[in-house]
Amino acid sequence: MNVGLMILSGLLVSLSFPSWAAPGFAPWTGWLAWVALIPALIALGRMTPGRAAFAGWLGGLACWMSILYWVAVVRELDYFRIPAWFLFAAVLAGYWALWGWLVARAGPRRVIWVAPAAWVLCEWLRGWLFTGFPWTPLGASQWAVPHLFLSARFIGVLGVSAAVVAGNAVILAAIRSPESRGGAAMVAASAIAILGVLSAVARVQVALDTRSAPTLRFALLQGGFTEEEKNLLPIDILVARYEALARQAADSHPAVMVWPETAAACAIGAPGLLSRARKLAVATRSDQLVGALYEGPGGAVLNGVFRVTPRGIEGAYYKMRLVPFGEYIPGWFRKVSPVARKLIASLIDLSPGFDPAPVDLPGGARAGAEVCYEAVYAAHARRIVRAGAEVIVNVTNDAWYWRTAATWQHALGPLSRAVECGRDLVRCANTGATLAVTPDAKISCSIPLFIPGVQIVDARILRVRTGYVRWGDWPVLALAALALLLSFRRERP
After folding, report:
1. Which residue ranges make up each domain of the chain?
2. For the domain bounded by 214-461, which CATH number is listed?
3. Which listed residue, 44, 225, 233, 352, has the most CB atoms within 10 A of its CB?
4. Is 295 a catalytic residue?
């Protein structure tokens, strides 16, 4: 029974995001997050810490196998697809096991404080440990409720996660004990009021920040290629599509045209890419931000974004956070696994960049770049904004995900970063969620998956640093740590 409740919670948490049941931004299912953990909290109140950890792991396994179901359809993984799906979910389920152990260890009386504090700790560890995997943090499920979600400008998505878990604990307390309903209602009202007040202040700040902000017009060029087409078609054909899209966009007179990540599946210096991008910059009178590889000295290959003008390359950013087993094979795995050599042969083993400096754009604007998966890391966005980014440009290729919910799960990253960092964000995908997001969480996404198209965006150039950019997750982490310390200290005789 208890294990079943944990598994139910895992499935409900997964369904609060874009999922196999609703693979898109509509319908919005984030309301489930406010009740999803109630079955788990009921179960944990009946178990010893050891059993709670195992049950938590099973709940986490159900959650992550449901969220990451798309791993099993990534054809490039070949016969590793099913094992990778299970192993990935099994490792991530360990954070649920830790959360279950902490909640059971504290006891039912302290669940209102311990459950959100322990969740914050586990979610933060998941985003940091072993390079981190901050995919679908619970707070991101509230992206469609700006009256609550804009509080991330001050407390980050991690703070919103804490409030959602606290909401689950408070609802359970009210159900369990009629005598405690008044106190539980006060706690719930206080939590919602804090999020609401912070969101209202954020909305006012965004209005003030953007009132007289200059704008820069971007054209986002979505090629719409499948992964097979990207890898098999000649460079000439790939580039020709972006040339056609750029000429179509030229009528709107954009200052910058953005190509997606590794748009032509080749290095920037390859014949037929750089020279044609330069000619396109002349013909359209627009700078070209081109996603491409770069072959550096010593055989190093980097994944970058290049500003191409009529004079050539006048700025670049190289991806700093690479995807383990997707873009490189960790050194330890090379030594211990006999399949490492096969994996290395099946992908380009990339090297990471090291400089978060923004790329200069026309009019003196400075763009902080995020390549693909980097957009799910809040710390990376803070770093590029602190380095001087006034607008964020995210390029990606989500063709790997086909038509699964992964495309929309991935898009929650840039959406969250725009709110946390107080920046307009433009995102150009080869195919996927090509979109624009404002600091008040307004989204514009007009091109369907796997369809070539252009989206024109007037992005505002913003310079104010938000509370989250200044302080990051440390205030929320400090409060969570304090809550845990005080809760466990009280149980000593």
Report:
1. 2-209+473-490, 214-461
2. 3.60.110.10
3. 44
4. no
